[in-house]
Write a structure and sequence with these properties.
Elements lengths: L4 E3 L5 E4 L2 H10 L5 H19 L21 H17 L8 H26 L9 H12 L6 H23 L7 H10 L5 H17 L4 H25 L3 H6 L1 H5 L9 H21 L4 H4 L1 H7 L2 H20 L5 H5 L4 H18 L4 H13 L17
Antiparallel strand pairs: 1-2
Length: 391
């Protein structure tokens, strides 16, 4: 069979298409949800900005110069929410897979989770002074597997319960002096504790719930946008009138709980930023129902290979910082080099070229190949084979 042969759902060749046409079809075909790719692209570049830019001013909606604060903490939670959406799509979307097909999908998620965790540890070994999210991502994947058979309503209820209850526990967990010991520091790195799975599973399950509700449906998109915006308004509004600040959070259980400060895992951050993430996902999917889908194609290309983009950014950072500064650990020195714009531009250009000329991102391809070698296809006779699911 020729390299660019198009296939029917059963895998038989129906026509031969040029290679570039098949790459275009993959990025823009029905197998992908364009808005999810857009949201992932924004999340990746947002994490770049949070890593590489100095963010000093206090956030103020009335002052556009402070709006860069929007990436702090929100990009990573958006990333986690999108993980849930992706898990939902590969396990059946609105109708969860059944039988051996679900068993195959879940086993592949477990293998992928281990690979993500291992890659996270390897990236931490570069010495780049950021909290690598991939260890937490891997743990969240494994936890999410237990919920893949649930329907949307149940997922939203469980996500809401975790979001309202676990921040109370998290304040106590974070205050444990164990984390200040050498063993605690190593444990925190292995768990990705800066993104604690104990609370962050709520974001993943909320995203999984959106996929189960039917993210391609206009009604679901609109309600997700409205509901997410309402939650964001509640969380950030309550924070604005609370008077909470970083200093008070260090001395008071209730101040540590009642806050929306980025990376605090406070109750108001979970509500506000969780809602923000849902609203962004819905807004991106709605935007991609219009002509904007072509305008944002480069961002969608980044979102089609987020693991590659995220990993390459950290590797380039380690390489350049070691050459220029003599160490990869000097965060301030590297930020002073103003690396964000060149890294972001080259990421967008590189991902767009790769997606249109080659196809799947290199790390995404490698992870997929490995998981399929480890966990063979065991699809039932009826239904679409798992191999045809992109996200």
């Amino acid at each position: 069979m020729s390299r660019g042969a198009a296939r029917t759902p059963t895998g038989s060749a129906t026509e031969t298409r040029p290679w570039l046409a098949t790459r275009w079809d993959r990025l823009n075909g029905e197998a992908r949800v364009a808005g999810v790719d857009l949201a992932r692209g924004l999340a990746v570049l947002g994490m770049f900005a949070a890593h590489l830019l100095w963010i000093r001013e206090v956030f103020d909606w009335g002052d556009p110069t402070t709006w860069i604060h929007i990436v702090d903490g929100r990009s990573s939670i958006l990333f986690a929410t999108l993980a849930g959406v992706s898990i939902g799509l590969v396990t059946g979307g609105p109708a969860p897979l059944a039988g051996r097909r679900m068993e195959t999908a879940r086993l592949r998620l477990v293998v992928r989770a281990f690979l993500l965790w291992l890659l996270g540890l390897l990236l931490d070994s570069t010495g780049v002074p950021v909290y690598v999210i991939l260890q937490a991502y891997g743990i969240l994947f494994i936890l999410a597997v237990a919920f893949t058979r649930l329907r949307a309503r149940t997922l939203f209820i469980v996500a809401g319960a975790i979001a309202l209850i676990m921040p109370f526990v998290q304040v106590w967990l974070d205050a444990n002096p164990f984390w200040l010991t050498p063993t605690g520091a190593l444990t925190a790195m292995a768990l990705g504790w800066h993104y604690p799975f104990t609370v962050w599973i709520a974001f993943v399950l909320a995203g999984l719930g959106v996929a189960r509700a039917g993210i391609r449906r206009t009604r679901v998109q609109v309600w997700t946008l409205v509901g997410g915006a309402a939650l964001a308004a509640i969380g950030y509004g309550l924070h604005a009138v609370s008077g909470s600040d970083a200093a008070s959070e260090q001395s008071s259980f209730w101040a540590a709980l009642w806050t929306a400060r980025p990376h605090s895992t406070g109750l108001l951050e979970v509500i506000g930023t969780g809602g923000f993430a849902l609203a962004v996902v819905a807004a991106c999917v709605l935007a991609c129902r219009t002509v904007l889908v072509w305008v944002v194609l480069p961002l969608r290309a980044v979102g089609s290979m987020p693991l590659t983009a995220y990993t390459v950014q950290l590797l380039v950072w380690a390489w350049v910082a070691t050459i220029v500064l003599g160490t990869s650990r000097d965060l301030g020195g590297f930020r002073d080099l103003d690396p964000f714009v060149p890294l972001a531009v080259w990421t967008v250009v590189g991902c767009t070229a790769w997606a249109l000329l080659v196809g799947r991102g290199p790390l995404e391809w490698a992870f997929d190949r490995f998981t399929r070698l480890v966990v063979k296809e065991r699809a039932d006779v009826e239904g679409q084979p798992l191999d045809r699911v992109e996200q």
